[in-house]
Design brief:
Elements lengths: L2 E7 L4 E11 L3 E8 L10 E3 L5 E5 L7 E10 L2 E10 L11 E4 L2 E4 L3 E2 L5 E5 L6 E5 L4 E8 L3 E9 L5 E8 L10 E3 L5 E9 L2 E11 L1 E8 L14 E4 L2 E4 L3 E2 L5 E2 L9 E5 L4 E6 L6 E9 L3 E8 L10 E3 L5 E6 L7 E9 L1 E10 L11 E4 L2 E4 L3 E2 L5 E5 L6 E6 L4 E7 L4 E10 L6 E7 L10 E3 L6 E9 L6 E8 L9 E8 L4
Parallel strand pairs: 11-13, 35-37
Antiparallel strand pairs: 1-6, 2-5, 2-7, 3-4, 3-6, 8-9, 10-11, 12-19, 13-18, 14-17, 14-19, 15-16, 15-18, 20-21, 22-23, 24-31, 25-30, 26-29, 26-31, 27-28, 27-30, 32-33, 34-35, 36-43, 37-42, 38-41, 38-43, 39-40, 39-42
C-alpha cells in the first residue's frame, strides 16, 4: 500500500521518455506517471499494472516540464527503476516564434520566457490594474522597475470562486516555486504582498495557478504614502491616515471589532513592536485552537488572555517560537471571551484563524505526555497543561536549593500532607533577586496563573510564602507548588531560589 516516487525534469527537445521497472519477486507493484505532480491510484497520465517482472511506460512527444514516476506496492517488493530519453532534433514548439533554437534550447527574445518562449512578460505599471487568467500548474509573468527605495505593494483579486493563485517575486531573475525573494501562497481569494524599503532594480512577478483562476493584478510603487503599521493590512493609507476596512478600527486598523468567526482565516500585518488584536467567544468545553501562518519571513508572537487584551507581560498562554506556522491551544475555554494579540517581534505578514477541537492538546504535550480527549496526560516527572515543566518532589521540612526558573516559565513540585487535617506552609526565597518570582499552590493538580488554591506575587520582597489549613479528608492529599518566573522580572537570566514546604502533624 506504499508509494515510491521519482522526479524527472525532461530536458528541452526530449522525445519519447521511457520509464522501466524490474520487479524482484516476491511482491506485486504497478507503475504510473504524471506531469506536474505525484501520481495517485486515481490520478495519473499513464499506468501499467505490472503483471510481469518487467514493465514500462513510454510517452510520445511529451509536454515539457517535470514528470513524476510512481511505483505502487500492492504487496511489498524490491525493484529497480530507470528512465531513458530520446533526443529530438528541434526545440520545444520551435520557440513559439519568440526566440532562437540553440543546442535544443530556446534563447528567448526580451519580453518572453518559458522553455518554449511562449509566456509573455508583461509590464506592471504602478497603480494600473489588468485582468488575467491562469490555468492550473501554469505561470503568468510580469516585471516592474523600482527606481527609488520605497514600498512595493502587489494586489491580487481572484474572480473565480473555486480558483487559487499564488504570487512569487524575485529581484533580477524569474521566480519559481523554489527560487524567490517573496511570496504569498495563501488560500485567500483577495490578497496583497507588500515589501517595505524595496531596493532599486527590476523585479519579476510570477502568478502560479495552483488551481485555474481569473484575477485582477495591480502593483503600487514609487512615491507611496506611508501609514503607521501599514494600516495592519486592514485598511488603505490616505495622507498618512488609515481608512479602515469595515469591521476594523484603531489608528492603524489594528482591532477587529466583531468576534472572530470560527474556522475563518484573517489576514494581518505588524511592524516591529506593534500589535494586532482579535477576540473570540467559543462558548464551548472543547479546546480553543488559535493558528498562525506567517508569510514573507519575519517573526510574529502570539498571546492569549481571557477577559481583556493581553500584553507581553500579562497573558494566560503564548507562543514566542520562531516557527513560521504554529498553533496555541487553550483548554476548556467555556463561555469566556478570549482576547488574542499578535505581536511583531520582527515585522511580519500573517494569517490567523481560531477554531475548537475536542482532540487538540496544548503544544502537543511537549513530547512529555499523551493527548487524551484534548487534555495532556503527562509522563512521570512532568507537569503543566502542556507537560512542559519538570515535576520535582518536596520532602516535609527539607529545603531544596539550587533550582532556577526562567521568565514566563514554570517549575513544579509535588508535596503530600502528613495527615488529613493540618497546616501547610510553602516558602520560596529568591537567591539574588527581589520580586522576580510568583508562588502558587494548588490541591490535586499543578496550578496555573488562573487556577490555584493560594498564591504570593509580591514584587517588593525576595521572600514569598503561603500558609493555610489543609483538609484532605476524603480528598487528594497531594498539593502542587508552582514557581513561576514573573513576566516583570528585571533580568531575562534564570532566577535562582530555594523552596521549602512544611506540614506539621496536629
Amino acid at each position: 500500500g506504499g508509494w515510491g516516487v521519482q522526479r524527472c525534469a525532461l530536458p528541452l527537445g526530449a522525445d519519447e521518455p521511457t520509464v522501466h521497472v524490474h520487479k524482484k519477486p516476491p511482491g506485486d507493484a504497478a507503475l504510473s506517471h504524471k506531469r506536474g505532480g505525484s501520481p495517485r491510484r486515481d490520478s495519473y497520465d499513464q499506468v501499467d499494472l505490472g503483471r510481469g517482472d518487467d514493465f514500462e511506460l513510454s510517452q510520445i512527444s511529451p509536454e515539457q516540464g517535470v514528470w513524476y514516476a510512481g511505483v505502487y506496492g500492492f504487496f511489498g517488493c524490491d525493484y529497480d527503476i530507470s528512465v531513458t530519453i530520446q533526443s529530438g532534433d528541434h526545440c520545444p514548439n520551435d520557440c513559439s516564434g519568440h526566440g532562437r533554437c540553440q543546442g535544443l534550447e530556446c534563447t528567448c527574445n526580451d519580453g518572453w520566457v518559458g522553455e518554449d518562449c511562449s509566456s509573455a512578460v508583461k509590464h506592471l505599471v504602478s497603480q494600473q490594474s489588468m485582468s488575467e487568467s491562469v490555468a492550473q500548474a501554469e505561470w503568468k509573468y510580469y516585471y516592474l522597475d523600482i527606481t527609488n527605495e520605497n514600498e512595493l505593494r502587489i494586489i491580487v483579486n481572484e474572480t473565480t470562486e473555486a480558483g487559487d493563485s499564488d504570487i512569487y517575486v524575485r529581484k533580477d531573475s524569474m521566480p519559481s516555486l523554489w527560487e524567490f525573494d517573496y511570496r504569498d501562497s495563501s488560500i485567500q481569494h483577495n490578497y496583497q504582498l507588500t515589501v517595505d524599503g524595496v531596493s532599486r532594480g527590476t523585479y519579476f512577478v510570477g502568478i502560479y495557478g495552483y488551481r485555474a483562476t481569473s484575477y485582477r493584478i495591480e502593483a503600487q510603487y514609487g512615491a507611496l504614502e506611508v501609514c503607521e503599521n501599514r494600516c495592519s493590512d486592514h485598511g488603505e493609507c490616505s495622507g498618512r491616515v488609515c481608512s479602515c476596512m469595515a469591521g476594523y478600527s484603531g489608528e492603524s486598523c489594528e482591532n477587529l471589532d466583531a468576534a472572530m468567526t470560527l474556522d475563518k482565516w484573517y489576514p494581518g500585518f505588524v511592524r516591529d513592536n506593534s500589535w494586532n488584536y482579535y477576540h473570540v467567544a467559543p462558548a464551548s468545553a472543547d479546546n480553543l485552537v488559535v493558528s498562525v501562518r506567517q508569510q514573507s519571513g519575519g517573526d510574529c508572537d502570539l498571546y492569549v488572555k481571557a477577559g481583556s487584551p493581553p500584553s507581553r507581560f500579562d497573558y494566560e498562554a503564548r507562543d514566542v517560537s520562531f516557527d513560521q506556522e504554529f498553533e496555541l491551544v487553550v483548554e476548556n475555554p467555556q463561555d469566556q471571551t478570549w482576547y488574542i494579540g499578535v505581536f511583531g517581534y520582527q515585522q511580519c505578514q500573517y494569517q490567523i484563524r481560531s477554531h475548537t477541537s475536542a482532540s487538540a492538546c496544548p503544544n502537543s504535550c511537549s513530547h512529555h505526555g499523551q493527548c487524551v480527549s484534548g487534555r495532556c496526560d503527562c509522563q512521570s516527572g512532568w507537569a503543566g497543561i502542556d507537560c512542559a515543566a519538570p515535576l520535582h518532589h518536596l520532602s516535609n521540612g527539607v529545603p531544596r536549593t539550587g533550582d532556577a526558573v526562567g521568565m514566563n516559565h514554570w517549575q513544579y513540585y509535588k508535596f503530600e500532607v502528613v495527615q488529613d487535617s493540618s497546616y501547610l506552609t510553602v516558602e520560596v526565597l529568591e537567591t539574588n533577586t527581589i520580586g522576580n518570582i510568583w508562588l502558587y499552590v494548588n490541591q490535586g493538580a499543578p496550578p496555573t496563573l488562573s487556577d490555584y488554591t493560594d498564591s504570593s506575587t509580591d514584587m517588593d520582597t525576595p521572600n514569598h510564602a503561603v500558609y493555610f489549613r489543609t483538609n484532605a479528608a476524603g480528598q487528594d492529599a497531594n498539593y502542587y507548588v508552582g514557581v513561576y518566573g514573573s513576566p516583570l522580572a528585571s533580568s531575562s537570566s534564570p532566577i535562582a531560589y530555594t523552596v521549602i514546604a512544611y506540614s506539621p502533624p496536629l
